Amino acid sequence: MKLTMKLLLLLALAPVTAFGQTNVTVDAGRGPVVVQIPSNYEPSNPAPLLLLLHGYSFTGQMMENYFDFAPLAEQNGFIFTYPDGTQDSLGFQFWNATSACCDNNNSGVDDLGYLTTLLDLLESQYNIDPQRIHIVGHSNGGFMAHRMACEDGTRFASIVSLSGAALDDPAQCAPASPMHVLHIHGTLDPIILYGGGFLNDSYPSAMETCTQWAAHNGCDAAPVSDANINFDGFIFGNETSVLRWQEGCATGGSVEFWSVFLGGHLPALSSQASSLIFQHLIDHPKPTAPGGFIRGDVGGDGTLDISDAIELLLHLFSNGNLDCREAANSNADGSLDISDVIYLLAYMFTSAPPPSAPFPGCGSQPISLDCLDPSCP
C-alpha cells in the first residue's frame, strides 16, 4: 500500500513533457480534453487514434504520466487523448463502466455516451483512420474499455485492459464485429482480483475475461504459449507469461493474455512495458480487404528475394514503414516478428515450404493484419 501511494504521488507531481506534437483541447460536453496531434500529421493522410482511460481515483494526466505513451504516439504518428471521468462524492474520478465498476454513488452518468461523443468530435475535426482506433485502460478504465468494445465494437480495432475485467455475463456483450483484445493482469492484484471477485457486482477472472473474448471472436478454445516478457520492472526476470488465442478467429479478432507473475494492481512498468503495449496496437489494426498482395513480398515488387527480408528487418528493428503488413506476415501467424524473416530466408535458400496463400499469385485473403497500400490489383 505504501508503495502504491508513493507511485500515485510521483504520478501526480510528474512534469508534463512535450515531444514535438501539438497539444490542443476539445470539449465534448464536460470541459476541455487534451488531444496530442503528432508533428507529422497531414489532414490528407488518415492517422491512428489512441484513447487512454484512467483507473478509479486517477486522472487522465496521471494515467499518461504512468504509461508515458506521448513519445510513442509522436514516434508512430498517433493522435492521442486521455480524458477525465466524473468526480464521485469523495472527489475521485471514475467511469460508469459496468455494474461491478465503478459508479459507487449510483449516479447513472452516461460515460459510454460521453466517450462516443468525444470520438465523434475528434473524427469530425481530424482525419482519423477508421481501421486504427484503439483503447488502453487501467483498472476502472480497463472495465470501460471492455464495455465500449461490447457496445460499439465496429469502431475499434483493439482494446488493451490492464487490471480490469470484462462483463460478468458474456450474454451482455454482443460485439458487432471481431475485436483484438489484450488483457494484462497481475496474479497478486489485491483490488481487481486475478481470480475474479465482487465490487458493486461480480466480475470475471482474468482467464474468464480472455476466454469470453476468444468465444466472441470465434477462436479455437485452446490458446498457444509464447515467450515470457518483462512487464513489471520490480520483479526479476521475464515474469510475465503470454497466451494467445489466434487460431480459428474471425478476421480482425484475436486475444492475448499477459499474466504478470507476482504482479499487483499498478505494476512498476519495465523500460519496455509501454513499448510492448504500443507495438500491440500497431500490430492489430482492423483488416482491409480491397486490393491484393503476395505473401512474403514485403517490398511489393512482385517477387520474393533478399530485399524483402531486409525490409522486414528494418521494420522490426528500425521502425521502417510497411505499406502492406499482411504481405510481411510470411508465416501467416497473425503477427510480425523475427520468425517471419526466418521463414522467408528458409524458403529462399533451403527446401522449406513456400508462404501460404496468397502466393505465388496476388490475392486479398486470408488477412489478419492491415494492407493500407496493396501492391497488386
Descriptive report:
The protein is an alpha/beta fold. It folds into 2 domains: 282 residues, Rossmann fold; 89 residues, Dockerin domain (Type 1 dockerin domain), CATH 1.10.1330.10. The chain is built from 10 helices and 14 strands. It has a 10-stranded mixed β-sheet with strand order 1-2-4-3-7-8-9-14-13-12, with helices on both faces. Strands 5-6 form a two-stranded antiparallel ribbon. Strands 10-11 form a two-stranded antiparallel sheet. A hairpin with a 4-residue loop joins strand 1 and strand 2. Helix 8 packs antiparallel against helix 10. The N terminus is likely disordered.
CATH topology of the largest domain: Rossmann fold
**Name of the level-1 CATH class of the largest domain:** Alpha Beta
- Tally of DSSP β-strands: 14
- Main pleated sheet: 10 strands, mixed
Q: Write down the Rg.
A: 21 Å
Note the run of SSEs as H and E: HEEEHHEEEHEHEEEEHEEEHHHH
Strands ordered across the widest β-sheet = 1-2-4-3-7-8-9-14-13-12
Our estimate of the beta-strand percent is 15-25%
Uncertain regions spanning at least 5 consecutive residues: 1-19
CATH architecture of the largest domain: 3-Layer(aba) Sandwich
